[in-house]
């Protein structure tokens, strides 16, 4: 479906290129001759006879869409051009319909979009109830919009939007706007897309007013109540050329917005006013809670309105909820839920600020939480297919997908089977599991080239060996984790995850009634032989090391490698003062406690009050869980990072005891492990069209299975 793609006339000389280069390859990309930060406004009028129509639309990189002046939607979800998405919207006939599309080509090679490749265009068609298409190629007019400028921030993530209202054609999206002087879009002769329907829902978009405001020198500070992801909009009256300063931040510093954010984004922009009324039109989203508008003290300047268009993947807030004030458990759940809400956009973002990318390892945790919160696996399945599609670039799968940046993290590749198994846990769908199995086989084949005779891996050098991030949370892990090439030898974490990958592959094979290689048992035995230190009852970091870090023990505990007699030593290791790990591996560490029957320790560490738990985030003012346990524990801490949302599945599965289990008729089992001291615990979660409700007092828990009600009932 490449026919029908349109672009601007100046794009005829732009070159389309392959942007993928390994991290250690510093050779320059070919010049596409394409502009960067390129905004185009396009309009189309079409006569529609009476009836119902479907608008199908796509754009590269992204669009905002209006129908007859009313907001319709945005998209598409980022994707590779050979599996590119279009979206659908219902349209009522019997009128002259005006479509207005704000198109954007970013032009940067990053984790956000598949940009920088010289592909920029629009595709749209209308179909009647009988499926007959009404091509729109000849009807589009456009104008290049120079109203936006600004520098690059984050990890080449986005352009700041210094906005000039004098260069914005106000009312251009309205039907009565005169576009007779605009040029016409032309066929994109180079178009090489393979289009398919976007498998996920369109983003939710809602207007959010500030919960409070107060004056600051020169302007006003607005508080939107919690971490939000979206765009700021405002209406101001003033004189042409007057300038306002916009500052966004996740926190305050001395009572003012900290716009030079910890996460390496400097959220400060300039708004230049037109004569009379001006409206701010921001395109790309930011992550923030607070906003300052400065310059309102200039003569004749009046702020009339200011609001945020918040955006995220649809989430019915009432489906999954926890009531339990004790030990701030409810508050931990709340900040994790908000991070998942903010980070679930058209993909599972590692953070919606600095990177805006979907990382495989992060998604293992975020997806588990998001499926519990929504009862929906649609976004998860898109995520899985995104990573499977990246196999054409890297056989072991990319660490971040989609996007135009090629990054490989060995730890994350080995965790990939957890994603299709999460889908299987919640759906029991063997057909989808079978679709995913070849990608898991491919990962195993790729890593097998590093195997030595006993089955363990050494010198895994094609990608980053992460272990934990940042480095200061690695608990002194005793192996050279240099980049881009890891030190030579055989170390623990990559082999624990290799065992886990083989174990999960064999679980898939059992579910699919496929022959099992039974390699996991051999590798597990070799792992214990190489790393177990019986005198300490713990695993060491490498074959030659006597140091037993948290990281060397948490994955073995999680995946069942800890020998008999090692449970107490593992608990003591986690409880030992000064022994710390990051929020990502802590999810697996606490899973390990649950597996070893250490429910009280799990609860104690989940609700710990020192500097290395979720309650420390709350003490530091979190409204979404952080990238690290505290703001100062990383040099560029994101204050909204869903990879720290592992408390949600831990509370639901390990404490409340609701565990998916395909061997049961109900698809789950109920095995609560709530501590006796816990009072007034109530949890509700969706599961396969039902609502599971756990109520407990004094450690006594009861389960109710209720029919799921649709939103609004």
Number of helices: 14
Structural class: alpha+beta
Largest sheet: 10 strands, mixed
- CATH class category label of the largest domain: Mainly Alpha
The name CATH uses for the topology of the largest domain is Glycosyltransferase
For the secondary structure, the number of strands is: 35
Low-confidence region ranges = none
**Backbone shape:** globular
User: Can you name the CATH architecture of the largest domain?
Assistant: Alpha/alpha barrel
Mean pLDDT across the residues is 95
Beta-strand content:
25-35%
Give the total of domains.
Answer: 3
Separation of the first and last Cα atoms:
40 Å
Taking Cα atoms only, what radius of gyration do you get, to the nearest Å?
26 Å
Helical content class: 10-25%
In short:
By secondary structure, the protein is of the alpha+beta class. It is about 25% helix and about 25% strand. The strands form nine sheets. Strands 11, 14, 18, 19, 20, 21, 24, 25, 26 and 27 form a ten-stranded mixed β-sheet that branches. A six-stranded antiparallel β-sheet has the order 5-4-7-2-10-15, with no helix packed on it. It has a five-stranded mixed β-sheet with strand order 9-8-3-6-17, with no helix packed on it.
């Amino acid at each position: 479906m490449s026919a029908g793609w349109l672009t601007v006339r100046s794009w005829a000389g732009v070159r389309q290129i392959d942007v993928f280069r390994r991290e250690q390859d510093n050779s320059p990309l070919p010049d596409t001759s394409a502009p960067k930060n390129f905004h185009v406004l396009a309009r189309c009028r079409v006569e529609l006879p009476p009836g119902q129509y479907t608008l199908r639309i796509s754009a590269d990189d992204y669009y905002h869409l209006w129908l007859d002046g009313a907001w319709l939607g945005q998209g598409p979800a980022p994707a590779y051009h050979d599996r590119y998405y279009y979206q659908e919207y219902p349209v009522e006939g019997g009128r002259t319909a005006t479509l207005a599309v704000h198109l954007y080509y970013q032009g940067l090679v990053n984790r956000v979009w598949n940009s920088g490749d010289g592909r920029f265009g629009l595709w749209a068609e209308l179909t009647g109830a009988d499926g007959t298409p009404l091509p729109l190629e000849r009807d589009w007019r456009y104008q290049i919009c120079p109203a936006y400028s600004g520098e690059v921030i984050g990890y080449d993530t986005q352009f700041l939007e210094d906005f000039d209202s004098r260069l914005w054609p106000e009312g251009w999206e309205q039907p009565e706007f005169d576009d007779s002087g605009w040029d016409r879009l032309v066929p994109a002769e180079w178009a090489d897309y393979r289009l398919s329907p976007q498998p996920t829902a369109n983003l939710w978009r809602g207007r959010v007013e500030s919960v409070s405001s107060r004056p600051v020198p020169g302007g006003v500070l607005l508080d939107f109540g919690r971490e939000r992801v979206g765009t700021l909009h405002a209406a101001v009256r003033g004189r042409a050329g007057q300038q306002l300063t916009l500052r966004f931040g996740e926190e305050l510093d001395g009572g003012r917005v900290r716009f030079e954010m910890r996460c390496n984004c400097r959220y400060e922009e300039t708004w230049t006013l037109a004569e009379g009324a001006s409206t701010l039109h921001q395109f790309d989203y930011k992550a923030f809670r607070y906003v300052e508008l400065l310059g309102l003290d200039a003569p004749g300047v009046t702020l009339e309105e200011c609001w945020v268009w918040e955006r995220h993947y649809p989430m019915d807030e009432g489906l999954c909820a926890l009531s339990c004030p004790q030990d701030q458990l409810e508050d931990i759940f709340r900040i994790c839920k908000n991070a998942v809400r903010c980070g679930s956009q058209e993909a599972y973002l590692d953070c919606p600020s600095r990177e805006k990318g979907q990382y495989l390892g992060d998604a293992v945790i975020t997806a588990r939480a998001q499926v519990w919160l929504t009862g929906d696996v649609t976004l998860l399945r898109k995520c899985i297919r995104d990573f499977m599609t990246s196999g054409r670039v890297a056989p072991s799968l990319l660490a971040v997908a989609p996007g135009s940046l090629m990054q490989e993290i060995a730890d994350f590749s080995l965790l990939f089977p957890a994603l299709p198994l999460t889908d299987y846990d919640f759906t029991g769908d063997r057909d989808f599991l079978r679709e995913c199995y070849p990608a898991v086989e491919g990962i195993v084949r790729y890593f097998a080239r590093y195997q030595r005779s006993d089955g363990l891996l050494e010198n895994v050098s094609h990608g980053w060996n992460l272990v934990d991030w940042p480095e200061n949370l690695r608990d002194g892990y005793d192996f050279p984790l240099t980049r881009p090439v890891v030190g030579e030898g055989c170390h623990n974490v990559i082999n624990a995850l290799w065992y886990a990958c083989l174990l999960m592959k064999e679980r898939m094979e059992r579910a699919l009634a496929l022959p099992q290689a039974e390699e996991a048992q051999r590798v597990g035995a070799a792992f214990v032989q190489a790393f177990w230190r019986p005198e300490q009852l713990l695993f060491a970091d490498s074959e030659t090391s006597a140091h037993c870090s948290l990281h060397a023990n948490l994955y073995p505990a999680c995946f069942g490698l800890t020998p008999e007699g090692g449970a107490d030593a593992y608990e003591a290791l986690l409880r030992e003062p000064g022994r710390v790990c990051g929020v990502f591996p802590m999810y697996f560490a606490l899973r390990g406690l649950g597996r070893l029957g250490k429910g009280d320790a799990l609860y104690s560490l989940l609700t710990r009050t020192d500097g290395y738990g979720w309650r420390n985030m709350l003490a530091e003012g979190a409204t979404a869980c952080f990238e690290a346990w505290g703001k100062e524990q990383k040099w560029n801490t994101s204050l909204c990072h869903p990879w720290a949302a592992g408390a949600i599945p831990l509370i639901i599965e390990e404490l409340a005891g609701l565990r998916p289990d395909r061997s049961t008729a109900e698809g789950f089992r109920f095995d609560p492990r709530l501590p006796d001291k816990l009072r007034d615990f109530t949890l509700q979660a969706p599961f396969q069209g039902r609502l599971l409700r756990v109520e407990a007092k004094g450690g006594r828990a009861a389960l109710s299975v209720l029919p799921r009600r649709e939103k609004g009932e």
